[in-house]
Specification:
Elements lengths: L1 E14 L3 E8 L3 E7 L16 E7 L8 E8 L8 H17 L7 H16 L7 H14 L5 E5 L8 E4 L5 E4 H4 L7 E2 L3 H4 L5 H18 L9 H14 L1
Parallel strand pairs: 6-8
Antiparallel strand pairs: 1-2, 1-4, 2-3, 4-5, 7-8, 7-9
Length: about 240
């Protein structure tokens, strides 16, 4: 096995006295783990930070062996870690990616979308500029892993207009006429998720509540549920400034 690619660092775990196991998302080969010799050294710690983009060289004698990874910094986002909200967002979106994606499966759309979320955070650490991108990334992640929501038409009537709810069971959109009597049992569907744009703060919070419901139900189960508190902390921060 030999892979050379730029990749987004998603998770770093110490291994042995000085090394680290790094999981990074590549454009064509998906999530790849690799052992970085000296990964906890003063020289490499600033490189191996979740959210950073690296140039990686993975080598292994067989596909069953953990590859050795040589990593060089391509773009640092370490400066954002001084912004609590931006740091919480990067921590969450990279941890989510590392936790739920199977290794070695290509997800080029997710790589592009994750890079877009991180770029949006870098451009606007205050959150208004990236919360919509985060919600769309979570929607795409659900879809890529087989749990996509159908927001194109009403699951009850088939109409495509005035879709303002989502069924928490089926993940299908529900129109105002079909869902008004059941409003308390349905999830709000923010208009920007259907028509595009950024959305106002209440819509952004509703969008993240929507994606959070399905992430927790369908993906964040078993051992990976341990990362859920990171999302809860992020949402609480967003609610305080909304």
């Amino acid at each position: 096995m030999h892979i050379e690619a730029e990749a987004i660092v998603c998770a770093v775990r110490g291994h042995g006295e000085h090394g680290a196991i790094v999981r990074a998302l590549t454009p064509d080969d998906g999530l790849i783990a690799g052992y970085v010799r000296g990964g906890r050294s003063r020289r490499l710690r600033p490189v191996l930070i979740a959210g950073n983009r690296i140039r990686g060289d993975w080598r292994a004698r067989s596909d069953d062996q953990l590859p050795a990874l040589v990593a060089e910094l391509a773009e640092s986002r370490a400066g954002l870690l001084g912004e609590p909200l931006a740091a919480a967002a990067i921590d969450w979106v990279t941890a989510l990616t590392a936790a739920v994606l199977p290794e070695g499966q290509p997800y080029p759309r997710l790589h592009v979308a994750l890079e877009g979320v991180l770029a949006a955070i870098a451009a606007a650490p205050s959150a208004r500029g990236w919360a919509a991108a985060l919600a769309r990334y979570e929607l795409l992640l659900l879809a890529e892993l087989g749990f996509g929501l159908d927001l194109s038409e009403c699951v009850a009537t088939g109409v495509r207009d005035d879709l303002i709810f989502v069924s928490p069971k089926s993940g299908g959109a529900v129109s105002r006429a079909a869902g008004e009597a059941y409003r308390d049992r349905l999830l709000p569907l923010p208009l920007f998720l259907v028509e595009g744009g950024a959305g106002a703060w209440p819509d952004l919070i509703d969008a993240l509540a929507l994606t959070g419901h399905f992430l927790i139900r369908d993906l964040l189960t078993g051992p990976v549920a341990a990362i859920t508190p990171a999302r809860e902390r992020l949402i609480e921060r967003l609610r305080r400034i909304a």
